[in-house]
Structure formats: structure tokens, C-alpha cells
Specification:
Layout: E1 19-28, H1 38-42, E2 46-53, E3 60-62, H2 84-100, E4 107-111, H3 117-124, E5 129-133, E6 150-153, E7 168-172, H4 181-192, E8 199-205, H5 207-212, E9 225-226, H6 229-238, E10 241-249, E11 254-261, E12 267-268, H7 274-300, E13 306-309, H8 313-321, E14 328-330, E15 348-349, H9 354-357, E16 361-364, H10 370-379, E17 385-388
The structure holds zinc ion.
């Protein structure tokens, strides 16, 4: 399959010539909003994915993304903190960052703090002060014992935000939701100013794995920006940062970047992965139809009721991409239970409700949770076939 260059500019490096390689229409514009009725879920606004690859820097963007369609309000329920496995990972990361970047007693600014769980973990690990910025923050869910240590700003970080006066800037699972990634990273750099000892710590999904695993459930509307280790490092180096490290974490699903602002031009850690990403993009484009058909066939052959485990973005993307009889999405987050999957209208149920459903097949939306899902199923006296995407 050949890709054709368009005049579209890459939001990361600015070069013209984005090459579209994957198009999907009718994709729900939000997969984390809590939808109260099946009818509302089926009538949910949709948009298009038109993924384009930048042959210069290796960045991938959805050039059809419309930021006005993305709602990050208090109805946005993205937290994974109800999973013990995810909590353990985040707590370990918070402790590691506090220790290695000497943040004990220091101040941390978290851009895109979500519901604030990670900043709480950093406070538990010893930071003296934390400022969390997010349009969907729920300060009332935070333990009042952190009043005075942690402050919350319900809004977006942008050019008008003002100086970041912290010992570290943390930004987890946010950059992939932003289209003008170059502008954003430059704004972070500008807000830090001449505080060159500020540690800059980013976490986001790794796209190499998405392409290699044909992980179509990891491609959805809110994620308009897709990085590999190399393209992430190139962006930060071009925006006035010295990149100390980019590494994989969480069973190689996430990228962790550590960087420092510099006065001159940036640089540091790099990886020449543009050709490999280009090959991965071709494989994804060529294999998409086949893998969605395979999953449809798998569910049709289950010989009983099928449910998916995970009512978050991956579940929404999976259910919207395949055409098979699936009864429900199970989710351990009590805020999600009783709501409906955007686009398809599947109910989101609690694990305990599976006793009534009695599934023959459970498809876990993330292999990393297989152990805790298996334990949950055993606890409810159920023994369906359990597989992961
Ligand atoms: Zn580029």
C-alpha cells in the first residue's frame, strides 16, 4: 500500500506532507463521558479518524480531529484508579520520581491531573506542595487531609497560564489528547522560563506497540496524537529541552519521558525509529480489516453470552469497531456502572452483575488486568473463557 503526501502540516515538527493511512467514520467523539441512557449513547456525536503519518519526524495525528467536539468536563470519567494493578504502578512511579528527582518537600505542578489521584500519591511520597490543573478535576473526591498541601485549578493549561513555579512539571496521559503538540510543549517550556532545574516528566501511550499489535482498540477519537519514543524525544529536543531518558513502562504500553529545560537548543536521548514506524503504519493500514473481522468471528463462535471487561476508551473503541453480539461491558469503576457505551449503547455493569449474565466468553480490554479479572470471576463463582485483546 502506498501513502500519498498531502499539503497538511505535521503538528509536531511543522513540516508539510502528512501521509494519511487509516480512515474510520462514525467514531464517538468521546469514550470517557458518562452517558446515562442507552438512547443518548446511541445518538452520541461522532467524528472521523483520519490518521496521518509524518515521514519527517514519525509523528502520527488525526487530521480530522475537531477539538470543539472533545468535552473534558466533570462528566469525563477517565480514571483507572479503581484497578489495583494500575494504582500499584502509579504509586511506584510517584515514589520513583520523588526520589530520583529529589522532590521531597518540593513543589510539583501537574498538567492534566484528571481526578488528582497521582498528585495525592506524590504527596504521600513526600512532596511539600502540589498544584493540579485539569478541566475535569473533582476536588471533593480528594481526602481533606491534603487541604493546604494540594491545590486544584479547574481549567486548561495554555499560553495564558502564567509561569510554572515548581520543582517538577508532571503531565500524564494528556499530550495524546492535544492536536497542536508542538505549540503545547513550547508553551510548557515558556512557562518554566529560566528555572532550568525543573524536572519535566511526561507519560503517554506508546504507538509502536499499537502498530505492532494491531491494537485497533487503542485508536480512538480523544487520542488525536500518537507518539513513539523517537518522535516524542525529537519533539522535546526541538522545543528547548534536553531529553534525559525515554523508556517503556507498564508492560511496554506507556512511554515515560524525563527532560530538563535548557537555555539554548535542546537535544539528548534520541532514537532513529522513523523507518520502523513507517513500516508499522503500513502493516496497520493493511491489517485493520482482517483483525476486526477475526474478533467478530471469535465472538460469534463463543457459544454463549460474551462480555468485554473494561468500559473505558479501549472498550468503546473495540465495541464500535467490531460487529458482534456482545451483551455488556464490565467495569470496576463504580462511577461508570449503570452508564452506557457511547456509540453502541452497551450497558456498563459491575462485576457482581455477571452472576446473572453468566458469560461464556470474557474479553479483557487490557492483558495487564487478566489476573485481577480472573480473581474477580472466581470470587463470583464464574468460570467463563477469559481472553485478552
Ligand atoms: Zn513531523
Amino acid at each position: 500500500m502506498t501513502r500519498t503526501a498531502t499539503p497538511l502540516a505535521c503538528p509536531a515538527c511543522g513540516a508539510a506532507g502528512l501521509e494519511p493511512f487509516h480512515t474510520q467514520h462514525g467514531v464517538p467523539t468521546n469514550s470517557c463521558l458518562l452517558v446515562d441512557t442507552e438512547d443518548e449513547a446511541r445518538r452520541f456525536p461522532t467524528g472521523s479518524l483520519r490518521l496521518g503519518f509524518c515521514p519527517r519526524c514519525g509523528f502520527i495525528t488525526n487530521s480530522s480531529f475537531d477539538p470543539t467536539k472533545a468535552e473534558y468536563s466533570g462528566r469525563y470519567e477517565e480514571t483507572q484508579a479503581f484497578s489495583p494493578r494500575f494504582r500499584e504502578f502509579a504509586r511506584g512511579l510517584a515514589a520513583d520520581w520523588v526520589e530520583r528527582h529529589r522532590l521531597t518537600g518540593g513543589t510539583v505542578v501537574e498538567i492534566g491531573c484528571g481526578k488528582g489521584e497521582f498528585l495525592v500519591m506524590m504527596a504521600e511520597a513526600g512532596i511539600g506542595r502540589g498544584i493540579g490543573v485539569d478541566p475535569g478535576v473533582h476536588p471533593e473526591r480528594i481526602d481533606p487531609r491534603w487541604d493546604g498541601t494540594l491545590d486544584w485549578i479547574a481549567g486548561r493549561f495554555d499560553a495564558g497560564f502564567g509561569p510554572i513555579e515548581g520543582d517538577a512539571v508532571v503531565c500524564r496521559h494528556t499530550l495524546e489528547h492535544i492536536v497542536p503538540v508542538g505549540d503545547f510543549v513550547r508553551e510548557v517550556r515558556a512557562a518554566i522560563g529560566d528555572r532550568l532545574d525543573t524536572a519535566v516528566l511526561f507519560e503517554l501511550p506508546d504507538t509502536t506497540r499499537v502498530l505492532d499489535d494491531m491494537a485497533f482498540w487503542d485508536v480512538y477519537y480523544e487520542h488525536c496524537s500518537y507518539f513513539t519514543a523517537g518522535s516524542l524525544a525529537r519533539l522535546f529536543a526541538s522545543c528547548g529541552f534536553e531529553v534525559d531518558d525515554v523508556r517503556l513502562a507498564y508492560d511496554d504500553q506507556y512511554l515515560l519521558l524525563e527532560a530538563r529545560p535548557v537555555a539554548g537548543s535542546g537535544g539528548g536521548w534520541s532514537q532513529d525509529d522513523v523507518a520502523a514506524t513507517s513500516a508499522g503504519v503500513d502493516r496497520f493500514a493493511a491489517g485493520y480489516a482482517g483483525i476486526t473481522r477475526e474478533w467478530t468471528a471469535r465472538v460469534n463462535a463463543a457459544g454463549g453470552t460474551t462480555v468485554i471487561w473494561g468500559g473505558g476508551s479501549k472498550g468503546v473503541a473495540f465495541l464500535n469497531a467490531i460487529d458482534a453480539p456482545i451483551a455488556a461491558a464490565v467495569d470496576v469503576n463504580p462511577h461508570k456502572q449503570g452508564t452506557f457505551i457511547a456509540g453502541t449503547g452497551h450497558p456498563v455493569i459491575a462485576p457482581a452483575e455477571l452472576v446473572t449474565v453468566d458469560p461464556a466468553l470474557v474479553v479483557a480490554m487490557n492483558p495487564i488486568y487478566l489476573e485481577e479479572i480472573a480473581a474477580d470471576l472466581r470470587r463470583h463463582g464464574l468460570s467463563p473463557e477469559l481472553v485478552a485483546v
